[in-house]
Amino acid sequence: MRSKKHLILLLVIMLVSLLVVGCGSKDAPKTEEVIPEETEKVEDNKEPEEEEEADAVTSASIVDNNEDFLKSISKDGNWITALLTDLSFEEELVLEGDGFESNGKPDRKIGLYSTDADKNITSYTLSAPKLTIKSSPARMLNGTFIGDIYVDADNFLLQGMKVEGNVYFTSESAQETFVNEDSEVTGVIELVD
Q1: Pairing between strand 125-133 and 144-151?
Q2: Interacting residues of 109 by C-beta distance below 8 A, sequence separation 6+
Q3: What is the number of domains present in the chain?
């Protein structure tokens, strides 16, 4: 009788142990594998999108050659294109694309200058037969452009520039929203058909 009690007790202990170990091992992987993976996937899915948006919105392109300049001013380019040297083109240039931002505000900029650690400005020259501005708002700063500028978008700003050529507006709205801050235009500034 005693051995029967021991055998039953031993069987009960083994069953309880199996239940505890079995239930514990089934729940543990679910908790460790499924929930964290889902959490990581959700976080992983959100973070790259936010990073991609930030890159598209805030990235800058500092260029010293024609190929990089053309990429940077394209519709898939950067909010700012900053020169490190004089550049000259035989073909017409187009600044295009919308949705670019700087500090949370719409912006598109061609900087014809660089600055050193002491904030001294070195200005550069960009030459092309024609530069068409299709991004809005857009601005050109602190250098010389040799050629004609055609403004096909509202809110274009010239700041600290010398334009050796003409500035033409393709609409009254583009002309009315144009701002010239301390810039010199050697040719005409007028509306064209």
Answers
A1: parallel
A2: 79, 80, 81, 102, 138, 139, 140, 141
A3: 2
What is the rounded CA–CA span in Å between residue 94 and residue 139?
13
The C-alpha atoms of residue 129 and residue 55 are separated, in whole angstroms, by: 31
Q: Are 151 and 172 in contact (CB under 8 A)?
A: no
92/140 same-domain check = yes
pLDDT tens figures, 11-52? 566 655 555 555 554 444 443 333 333 323 333 333 333 333
| Runs of H (alpha helix) within the chain | 2-29, 35-58, 66-73, 172-176
**Residue closest to 183 by CA, chosen among 146, 128, 142, 155:** 142
**Same-domain check for residues 139 and 98:** yes
Residue 35 tokens, joined = 């929930």
pLDDT for 92-101, tens place per residue? 999 999 889 9
pLDDT band at 147 (very low <50, low <70, confident <90, very high): very high
Last residue of a domain, one of 19, 43, 58: 58
User: How far apart are the C-alpha atoms of 57 and 35, rounded to whole Å?
Assistant: 33
Of the chain, the percentage scoring pLDDT greater than 70 comes to: 69
Contact 170/147 with Cβ under 8 angstroms?
no
Interval 109-113 mean pLDDT: 97
Domain that holds residue 29: 1-58
In whole angstroms, what is the distance from residue 178 CA to residue 137 CA?
Answer: 10
